[in-house]
Write a structure and sequence with these properties.
Elements (H helix, E strand, L loop, with lengths): L1 H5 L4 E2 L1 E4 L7 E4 L5 E4 L27 H11 L3 H9 L2 H8 L11 E4 L5 H6 L8 E5 L2 H8 L8 E4 L12 E7 L8 H10 L1 E13 L4 H10 L5 H11 L2 E7 L13 E10 L23 H31 L7
Parallel strand pairs: 5-6, 5-8, 6-7, 8-9
Antiparallel strand pairs: 1-10, 2-3, 3-4, 9-11, 10-11
Helix pairs in contact: 7-9, 8-10
The structure holds S-adenosylmethionine.
The site of S-adenosylmethionine (SAM) has 21 residues, from helix 2 and helix 5.
């Protein structure tokens, strides 16, 4: 039962209830049992306004803008050919975009952290490319997007997901795939995901899920942010979205296994109920990208983060081999 529920493409609606004690309780449409009860204990959060449910000690070496910039300086060379086929297939992409309801070619859509345009290629199957904007902080990733024929008519911009250069109430859809894990302050990015669509517009954030297996969890937490499902729901709900839903996704050969985490593990959507900015108030940005950094500290963080990322090149290969040798009726 459990594994069939976890297979990619299953719709999991997480329902948030606010009982009188004020502690949000998350439950699913599958069992209507609480998934977790978020602690309201106060932690001193150093760099990012993560959920209070998450320990703050994990280093997440690449979850910062400068490290992410350099990470993609190199990864952009192999991203489409080596990284995506292992973690983010066309089939997964199309399933993940389905809750974004790209049901009209005239929709105005922004793809945030659009990178090489892999997800944008899924968007322009439904929407006129003239109506699609790609924004990313990496010029190297965007250079790859610019080379793609179906994206030639899209608007392609450099910019920061936490500070989008668009007016409020401008788009019909906000899409961001595989980028939230690098944002130093994901709640700030989700607040932007609320601000830029029009009333009734949908924001769709596709991203990783946190591993439960100890070794995978160790490397995941060294590398970047692998949010828990409840954290996505919390960020969307706090930003003001209504009708917040999670759809689980994953490569076919994982057979629904989620214990190693997934780099693209869920598609989270919310509907903007009112026009204007998000009611959520946040302080100033936590990360000042213009501040000079100690180059040795930076280099050490970058190397450790990149080594941790290498573990996640091996996991899909391991799962692929398991899928080939373990009979289909057995769990893997
Ligand atoms: C894993 S890639 C995903 C690319 C694309 N969305 C896809 O589906 O293939 C992550 C992208 O997020 C971008 N990124 C990371 N932090 C960002 C930020 N703060 N603002 C904008 N883009 C960011 C990176 O440059 C990179 O291109």
């Amino acid at each position: 039962m459990a594994s069939s529920l976890l297979n990619g493409g299953e719709n999991l609606n997480l329902i948030v209830r606010f009982p009188p004690n004020g502690h949000p309780i998350f439950s699913s449409n599958l069992h209507n049992k609480p998934i977790t009860k978020l602690s309201t204990r106060k932690f001193s959060v150093p760099r990012c306004s993560l959920s209070a449910s998450r320990p703050v000690s994990q280093p997440r070496f690449i979850q910062h803008k400068q490290e992410a910039f350099w990470f993609y300086r190199f990864l952009s060379l192999v991203y489409d050919h080596i990284i995506n086929p292992a973690h983010w297939t066309e089939e997964m992409r199309d399933e993940a975009l389905e809750p974004a309801k790209l049901d009209n070619p005239n929709l105005k859509v922004v793809d945030v952290g659009g990178g090489t345009g892999f997800t944008t290629l899924g968007i322009v199957k439904h929407v006129d490319p003239e109506n699609v904007t790609i924004i990313d902080q990496s010029p190297h990733q965007l250079a790859k997007a610019r080379e793609k024929e179906p994206l030639k008519k899209c608007t392609i911009l450099e910019g920061d997901a936490e500070d989008l250069p668009f007016p409020t109430d401008y788009f019909n859809r906000y899409v961001s795939a595989g980028s939230i894990e690098y944002w130093p302050d994901p709640q700030r990015g989700i607040k932007q995901a609320y601000r830029v669509p029009r009333i009734g517009g949908i924001a769709c954030v596709i991203g990783p899920v946190h591993p439960t297996f100890w070794l995978s969890r160790f490397f995941a937490d060294l590398w970047m942010l692998f949010p828990k499902e409840e954290e996505y729901i919390e960020w969307f709900t706090k930003a003001g979205f209504k009708d917040v839903k999670i759809k689980r996704i994953g490569p076919k050969w994982y057979r629904g296994v989620r214990r190693h985490g997934l780099i693209m593990g869920c598609s989270v959507t919310g509907v903007k109920p009112y026009s204007g900015d998000s009611p959520l108030q946040l302080g100033p940005k936590t990360e000042d990208v213009k501040k000079p950094v100690n180059r040795w500290v930076f280099l050490t963080r970058f190397i450790l983060g990149t080594l941790a990322a290498a573990y996640f090149v091996l996991v899909p290969i391991y799962m692929w081999i398991k899928d080939k040798i373990v009979p289909k009726s057995w769990p893997i």
